[in-house]
Amino acid sequence: MTSSTNYDLIVVGSGAAGLAAALTYAEADHDGDPPHRIAVLERSKKEDRGGATRWTGAFLRVNEDHRFDPDYADHLDRVSGGRVDTAYVRKLEREVPETLRFIEERGVELTFNEFPLAHRFDNGVASMTPPGMPKGGGKSIVETLASKLEQFPNVDYLYETEALRLTTAEDGAVNGLIVRGADGRTSPLTGRSVVLACGGFEGNYEVLTRYIGERACDLPLIAPGIANNRGDGLRMALELGADTAGQFDMIHAEPADTRSSAPDAVLYSYTAGIFVNRHGDRFFDEGSDTWDNTFEKIGYEIWKNQDQAAYWIADAKTLAIPGIENGFLSDLAPEQADTLEELAAKLGLSPEAVEKTVAAFNASTTDDEFDQTRFDGKHTIGITPQKSNWAVPIDTPPFIGYPLTAVITFTYGGIRTDLDARVVVPNGTPIPNLYAAGEVTGLYYHEYPPATSVLRSLTFGRIAGAHASKTHASATRET
Question: How does residue 2 score in pLDDT terms, banded at 50, 70 and 90?
Answer without folding.
Answer: very low
